[in-house]
Amino acid sequence: MAIASVRPAAVAGQFYPGDERVLRMQLTEMLAAAVSLEQIRPPKALIVPHAGYIYSGVVAANAYRTLTSLRDQIRRVVILGPAHRQAFSGFALPAAQAFHTPLGDVPLSRADWLMLQARDDVRVDDQPHALEHCIEVQLPFLQTVLDRFSLVPILVGDAPDESVAELLEALWGGPETLIVISSDLSHFLPYRQAQWIDRSTVEQMVGLLQGINHEQACGATPVNGLLLAARRHLLKPRLLDLRNSGDTAGDRSRVVGYASIAFCEPETSPHARH
């Protein structure tokens, strides 16, 4: 069946390599260098940075490495990220029915695309998605670590935490569904100041405490919604990596912070099944 419309890659060749072979090689190297945490349970949700791969790719790789055992299980990925280029209220879905990267097309989950439009706070609009990078940069990682999957790409504008949590609840699904929140941390602070602020922000996230602001994280709105939903689902957060661009790309005078955090479902005790 021909796909009705495909969103072309907007930042290939800028945020990550535009050549398929070079991109595959870079992804393979970053994932191979990622720390493998044997004791961590497979995640239900991830907070992952979205800068250019030379800046935050190694941090993102530490999150995506945790999906290795879920390659055949995850069939749907819900990605929420902040709209950097257009202000609006609520949530924006693309009209396009697939996202393209140098590794191929990722189809949207048609059923979810239709279901979400019933919400008053969801709009279908290709404009906010056209040049936005926060969802696109996650896709080559997902295309590498997972088999075939469908995508629910949502840009988040001005929205209350409760609305984000409700949206996530509607898309929560079971073991076949992964939730990804795309967000960087502090922006353009001196290295030491950024380290201090980002550590504090991560402690807040790992404590499942809402109230993250946009100075702390550009994706504060979707992050706060996830923290609320994670608390309700008793998810256990685990910090996987915390660095900034001063650690990865040199210049320490004005840095951007990056963290990868996994949110894992609690182990089911034998008594809980009865």
Entry summary:
The protein has 274 residues and is of the alpha/beta class.
Description:
The chain is α/β, with parallel strands linked by helices and about 270 residues long. About 30% of the residues lie in helices and about 25% in strands. The chain contains 9 helices and 12 strands. It has helices spanning about 20-35, 55-65, 110-115, 125-130, 140-145, 160-170, 190-205, 220-230, 245-250, and strands at about 5, 45-50, 75-80, 90-95, 100, 105, 120-125, 150-155, 175-180, 185-190, 235-245, 255-265. Strands 2, 3, 4, 7, 8, 9, 10, 11 and 12 form a 9-stranded mixed beta sheet that branches. The protein has a 3-stranded mixed beta sheet with strand order 1-5-6. The longest helix has 16 residues, at about 190-205. Mean pLDDT is about 95; it is low at about 270-274.
Inertia-based shape: globular
Strand elements, count:
12
Query: What string, H for helix and E for strand, traces the elements in order?
Result: EHEHEEEEHEHHEHEEHHEHE
How would a crystallographer describe the biggest sheet? 9 strands, mixed
* CATH class categorisation: Alpha Beta
CATH topology: Protocatechuate 4,5-dioxygenase, Chain B
| Euclidean distance between termini CA atoms | 46 Å
Named at the architecture level, the CATH assignment is 3-Layer(aba) Sandwich
Number of domains: 1
Q: What class would the helix/strand composition place it in?
A: alpha/beta
Number of helices: 9
Question: What's the alpha carbon Rg, rounded to whole Å?
Answer: 17 Å
Taken as a percent bin, the fraction of beta residues is 15-25%
